[in-house]
Amino acid sequence: DEAPVHWKKPIPVPSDGMFNLESDHPIHQHFGPLDGLDGSVGTPLRWQTDEAFFVAASAMHTLKGAQQELKVITRERQALQVWAHEENEAILHALREAGV
User: Fold this and answer.
1) Chain centroid to CA 56: how far?
2) Residue 1 falls inside a structural domain
3) Is residue 70 part of a domain?
4) Would 80 be classed as within a structural domain?
5) Model pLDDT for residues 26-63, shown as the tens digit of each residue
6) Terminal CA-CA length for the chain
């Protein structure tokens, strides 16, 4: 994989090598170890975790916006249901008054 275009800094390599097996490494707390094709387990590259963070942050922002929009739509739907019920009651009352 190549680094994203927006990543300008060189990729830092941990001093203990690319395939760090320490489970208490901070990167493992959020993303877990990266499984290699050869069966080895290592730490994800810095740009991969940054990219994953930005994708996740973008998804969370989109989700929050969708949740807010759903709340607005739900309130509007409830208001329309109340209005429709009141209109139906008014029409039924007018029909009863007219003797229909």
Assistant:
1) 6
2) no
3) yes
4) yes
5) 544 444 455 555 555 555 566 666 777 778 888 888 99
6) 76
Q: Which amino acid is at 26?
A: P
Domain ranges, residue 84? 46-98
Distance CA 3, CA 31 (A): 18
Domain count, the chain: 1
Backbone angles phi, psi at 40, to 5 degrees: -80, 160
Residue 43 CA to residue 38 CA, distance in Å, equals 14
Element (H, E) at 42: strand 41-42
Helix ranges restricted to H, 1-100: 26-30, 46-98
The model's pLDDT over 56-74, given as tens digits with 9 standing for 90+, comes to 888 888 999 999 999 999 9
Q: Does 8 score more than 90 pLDDT? A: no
Predicted TM-score (pTM) of this structure:
0.45
- Would residue 4 count as lying in a domain? no
